[in-house]
C-alpha cells in the first residue's frame, strides 16, 4: 500500500512537470499562432476588405501619374458588394501609392505617415507602385459607401492625388 502510494507520488512528481511543459509549449505555440494570424490577417476597413483569392466581379485598370492624378480607365461603376480587381500602373517617374479607405481612415493614415514616413500599409488596402511598374489589388467593397482612393506618398495628397467615389 505504502509502495503504491509512493509510486503515485513519484509518478505525479515526474508527470506534473512534463504536463506543465507540454501545456506551456502548447500555450506558447498557440500564442505565436495567434500573433501570426493577427499579422497576416487583412485589415477590415470601413469600406471593405482585401479579397485575396476571390473571383473579381469587375476589373478596373488604374493609372497613377506624376501630374498627381489617379485615373480609372474604365467607366464601369463600382457597386456596394463588388469584388474589384484593380490593376494599378504607375506611368510616372516617381513612386506613387494606391490606397483604399474611408476619408477618416485616409486622414489617420497620413497622420501616421507624417511621423513614420516609410510605414506604408501592407495590409491589402494600400500598395506602393514603383515608376513604370504595375501592381494588382483585389478589394471587396462593403460597408460605408463613400470611398477615398489616395496616394499618400509625401505631399501627393495635398497636390490633389485623391479620388472620392460614392458607390
Ligand atoms: Cu503619388
Automatic annotation (TrEMBL):
One of its GO terms (molecular function) is metal ion binding. It comes from the Bacteria. Keywords: Copper, Metal-binding, Signal. Coiled coil: none annotated. The keyword ATP-binding does not apply. Residues 1-20 form the signal peptide. PANTHER family: AURACYANIN-B (PTHR38439), COPPER-RESISTANT CUPROPROTEIN COPI (PTHR38439:SF3). This is Copper-binding protein.
Amino acid at each position: 500500500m505504502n509502495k503504491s502510494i509512493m509510486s503515485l507520488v513519484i509518478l505525479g512528481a515526474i508527470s506534473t512537470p512534463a504536463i506543465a511543459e507540454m501545456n506551456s509549449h502548447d500555450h506558447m505555440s498557440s500564442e505565436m499562432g495567434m500573433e501570426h494570424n493577427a499579422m497576416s490577417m487583412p485589415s477590415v476597413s470601413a469600406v471593405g476588405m482585401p479579397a485575396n483569392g476571390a473571383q473579381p466581379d469587375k476589373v478596373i485598370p488604374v493609372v497613377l501619374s506624376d501630374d498627381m492624378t489617379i485615373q480609372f480607365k474604365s467607366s464601369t461603376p463600382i457597386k456596394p458588394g463588388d469584388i474589384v480587381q484593380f490593376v494599378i500602373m504607375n506611368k510616372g517617374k516617381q513612386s506613387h501609392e494606391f490606397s483604399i479607405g474611408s476619408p477618416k481612415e485616409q486622414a489617420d493614415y497620413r497622420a501616421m505617415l507624417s511621423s513614420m514616413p516609410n510605414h506604408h500599409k501592407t495590409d491589402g488596402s494600400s500598395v506602393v507602385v514603383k515608376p513604370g511598374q504595375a501592381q494588382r489589388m483585389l478589394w471587396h467593397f462593403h460597408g460605408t459607401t463613400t470611398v477615398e482612393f489616395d496616394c499618400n506618398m509625401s505631399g501627393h495628397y495635398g497636390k490633389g492625388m485623391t479620388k472620392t467615389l460614392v458607390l
